[in-house]
Design goal:
Blueprint lengths: L3 H8 L3 E2 L4 E2 L1 E8 L2 E8 L5 H16 L4 E8 L27 E7 L6 H14 L4 E5 L7 H4 L7 E3 L2 E3 L1 E3 L2 E5 L14 H13 L8 E5 L6 H9 L4 E6 L3 H16 L3 E8 L3 E2 L6 E2 L6 H8 L4 E5 L21 H18 L1
Helix pairs in contact: 3-9, 5-6, 7-8
The structure holds adenosine-5'-triphosphate.
Pfam families: ParA
GO molecular function: 4 iron, 4 sulfur cluster binding; ATP binding; ATP hydrolysis activity; ATP-dependent FeS chaperone activity; metal ion binding
Family: Belongs to the Mrp/NBP35 ATP-binding proteins family.
């Protein structure tokens, strides 16, 4: 089994690509065959981080680690050599005023209401309608998009640019690509914004009609960063039909409105359960939340989605993507059409 000293010795061989010195190791934990390290780099959230990540995993596994957990943070300004301080990268083309991409943030008041499910299915439906679509999985506390879409590969790095993974015609970048082994990630406040900014500047998105962002639930740092970083972002708020859920979601909507983001509409998820045998609908989580929220935010209810799972026996299965001919898949197509219409008008 590797010792802490051996791990530190091995990591000395790995260089921080920006300052050309050994990477700064903040923490090493070893538990049986599992080695977890926390590393600080001059910059993160970019192609170079992914390369360092790969080097560390290969080195530690080569030396006998069974699995490797990695966490990254950035060196402080004081730790950086003078010439590396305060670099100002300028505005990425995707964010420039003549960018043709419409940003759509998908938000919710609380977790577990289906925000990520709505994001990936709306993205897939927009792609099915012939649009060029990207997704940023910015839900740092529960980056679930790759699993939901059945993505197993990692983005490729070509000429220092990260090329998103494409699935169902949707280009995907996820926080999950920047950690190994599902290690829990604890991001400090300012890093989140930087990471997001890098997702715009370091990723080769190509031309996009729509870029959807799966935000963390609630009205925390990342949600706020998105609001300030993307002044013309549109928003979709997801809620369940329960009155309390709608009440909490109203806060996310209020934040969008306060920062001048147009709320495209509300999606009510888990609206009811429909019996396949009798066709009877049961309103398991209550009723009326979506309507109430839409009214409160002076926007439209874009659709109501019943409870249901994708068909497991289909080809090209992904755990959370409904097929185009699935009852719920059809609902998503209708929502996607409404979204396009609302944006064009
Ligand atoms: N209409 C639905 N019918 C059945 N299950 C659903 C439906 N929508 C979502 N789910 C399931 O509910 C769970 C939560 O969904 P999801 O992860 O999309 O929520 P979330 O709001 O993004 O949560 P978090 O922010 O905590 O990641 C998942 O297991 C998902 O598969």
């Amino acid at each position: 089994m590797l010792s802490r000293e051996e791990v530190l010795e091995l990591l000395k061989e790995i260089k921080d690509p920006f300052i050309h010195k050994s990477v700064t190791v903040r923490d090493v934990k070893i538990k049986e065959g599992y080695v977890s390290v926390k590393v600080a780099l001059a910059q993160t959230g970019n192609a170079e981080q992914m390369q360092v990540q790969q080097e560390i995993v290969n080195t530690l596994k080569g030396a006998g680690a069974e699995s490797v957990g990695l966490r990254f943070e950035e060196l402080t300004q004081d730790e950086l050599p003078g010439d590396a301080r305060q670099s100002n990268p300028g505005m990425p083309p995707l964010l420039s005023p003549d960018s043709k991409t419409t940003f759509i943030a998908v938000a919710s008041g609380k977790g577990g209401v289906g925000k990520s499910t709505v994001t990936v299915n709306l993205a897939t439906s927009l792609a099915r309608l012939g649009k060029k679509v990207g997704v940023i999985d910015a839900d740092i506390y529960g980056f679930s998009v790759p699993d939901m879409m059945g993505i197993e590969e990692r983005p490729k790095i070509i000429d220092d640019k990260i090329h998103p993974v494409e699935r169902f015609g949707v280009k995907v970048i996820s926080m999950a690509f920047f950690v190994e082994d599902n290690a829990p990630v604890i991001w400090r406040g300012p890093m989140l914004g930087k990471m997001l900014n890098n997702f715009f500047s370091e990723v080769e998105w190509g031309e996009l009609d729509y870029l959807l962002l799966d935000l963390p639930p609630g009205t925390g740092d990342v949600a706020l960063d998105v609001h300030t970083m993307l002044p013309s972002c549109k928003e979709i708020i997801v809620t369940t039909p329960h009155a309390t859920a709608a009440f909490v979601a109203a806060r996310a909507g209020a934040m969008a409105i306060k920062t001048n983001h147009e709320v495209l509409g509300v999606v009510e998820n888990m609206s009811y359960f429909e019996s396949k045998v009798t066709g009877e609908k049961e309103y398991v989580f209550g009723q009326g939340g979506g309507e109430k929220l839409a009214e409160e935010l002076s926007t439209d209810l874009l659709g109501k989605l019943p409870l249901g799972q994708p068909d497991m026996d289909k080809d090209d299965f992904a755990p959370s993507i409904y097929e185009q001919d699935h009852l719920i898949g059809k609902r998503y197509m209708e929502i996607a059409e409404k979204v396009i219409e609302k944006i064009n008008n």
